[in-house]
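Sample entry follows:

_____
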Amino acid sequence: MLTDVTHATVLVADVDEALEFYTEKFGFEKRADEEFAPGMRWVTVAPEGGRTELVLQEPTEDFFGDEAAKLRERIGQGTVTVLATDDCRETVATLEGNGVTVTSAPEDVPWGVSAMVEDCYGNPYNLVEER
């Protein structure tokens, strides 16, 4: 049976720009950065100690061929990814100070405290501090 989610893909326009954003702005650690295939790098990031890694995927013609253009149209159109935090308000203040766009300020919700931010391409992230 299936036992875990290990990776989730985030489409990005430039792997190096995304890597800088996720490590410098979000404070994630780089887990992998290697050539996967001609025209494709396998670059992953994750919160320190986190199990699930985000794959920063740049849709290149060398690797994706004719599909690359369709994939590039989806950059910034990702579905909401939920990120856990011990203190949502403090995390949002830190991210804001790092230049991250906050699209919804922290608010109390039935399951805890929730806020919305986005990466440098507009991909949405829900920060959740559970009760």
Q: What stands out?
A: The mean pLDDT is 96. Strands lie at 7-11, 29-37, 40-46, 53-57, 81-84, 101-109, 112-118, 124-130.
